[in-house]
Write a structure and sequence with these properties.
CATH topology: Pnp Oxidase, Chain A
CATH superfamily: Electron Transport, Fmn-binding Protein, Chain A
Structural class: alpha+beta
Helix content: 10-25%
Order of helices and strands: HEEEEEHEEHE
CATH architecture: Roll
Largest sheet: 8 strands, mixed
CATH class: Mainly Beta
Length: about 160
């Protein structure tokens, strides 16, 4: 019996539990420098493809997410193209609905934020448009039946 795939999976699971996410696997607490002070310009995130989002401060759970800036705010969506179609089925989304305190890692810096679900239609459409533009999504990429929630990451 070849044990190397099993051993590799075990090592990846242990790594994910000990630190941030590894590939598609969720992880634990994020490591890096905590950013001090306010952020008024998130335009630097245009060059960052994936961010790491940590939820559940009492038992940190982190995942890779997309991020986009629009109108001076930073946003993260639930899946726009794959995975569970209903956002509430994702662990990180359940965590955020119970406790909105999150940390987002962009590059080497961690920003302590509060996730607020966007419900106002104009803001929601503007944020969706920012993701479509940043990630060069077209109609073939998007599932019209998918329920997408977008969270604005406000200061705590």
């Amino acid at each position: 019996m070849n044990r190397s795939p099993l051993a590799a999976a075990l090592v990846l699971a242990l790594l994910a539990a000990a630190c941030g996410p590894v590939g598609p696997l969720a992880g634990g607490p994020l490591t890096g420098t905590v950013h001090e002070g306010a952020v008024s310009d998130w335009s630097f995130t245009e060059t960052i493809r994936d961010a790491e989002l940590e939820t559940n401060p009492s038992d940190p759970y982190s995942v890779h997410v997309w991020c986009a800036q629009q109108g001076g705010a930073l946003y993260v969506p639930t899946s726009m193209i794959r995975g569970e179609e209903h956002p509430g089925e994702r662990q990180w989304v359940r965590n955020v609905t119970m406790d909105p305190k999150v940390r987002v890692k962009l590059g080497d810096e961690i920003y302590e934020r509060r996730a607020v679900k966007v419900t106002e239609p104009a803001e929601l459409e503007a944020a969706k448009a920012a993701f479509v533009k940043k990630y060069a999504l077209d109609g073939n990429d998007l599932d019209p039946g998918r329920d997408v929630w977008i969270f604005r990451l406000d200061p705590r």
